[in-house]
Each structure stands twice: as C-alpha cells, then as structure tokens.
Design brief:
about 100 residues; mainly alpha; 4 helices; single chain
C-alpha cells in the first residue's frame, strides 16, 4: 500500500484482503504500522486489520513470521530492549459510578 489513503480504502471495504497483493507483503507493511507512534495507523489500521484477518484464518500461513517480525521489532538494534516499540495506547477506562 502506498499511503494512508490505501489503508483507509481497505477499511472502507470492510477489510477485504486485497487480491492483487501478496499476503506476506501486506502483513509486513501492517506489522510496520504496529510500531507507529500515530494511534490511527497503529490501532485503527494495523491492529484492526491484523486482528480481523487472524480471526478469519487468513493469516494462518504467516502467523509464525508475523510473530518473529514483532519480536524482532521489540529489540533495539544495539541489543537493548526498547519498550516504546509496538506499545499500543491504553484504551480509555471507565470510572466506577
């Protein structure tokens, strides 16, 4: 996908997997979105698409690779753990009445 508008169109199309794209490439791009500081890219697009496709069984052939890629992003290039990578924003919590 070339830009945010491509991902927005994908969301508007009810997250139908693009037939003209390689699954591994799409998942790799979405995996990169999971590390984005932009909550729209990370949460609204990355987590939503990957979660939906995983529940539908569309990612069965790439789940191991997806997990390996996610684990790789959690390690800083110099070997230090970087907890800021792929840390989703906390969902709003409700206060007890």
């Amino acid at each position: 996908m070339d830009d945010l508008s491509d991902w927005t169109r994908l969301a508007d199309a009810d997250w139908v997997m693009p037939s003209d794209r390689n699954l591994v490439d799409v998942v790799a791009e979405l995996g990169q979105l999971l590390g984005s500081p932009d909550p729209r890219l990370r949460d609204d697009i990355g987590f939503t698409a990957l979660g939906r496709w995983a529940r539908e069984g569309l990612l069965d052939d790439v789940l191991v690779r997806l997990g390996d890629d996610a684990a790789q992003r959690l390690t800083h290039p110099q070997g230090r753990h970087d907890s800021r990578v792929r840390t989703p924003s906390a969902p709003p919590s409700r206060r007890a009445p």
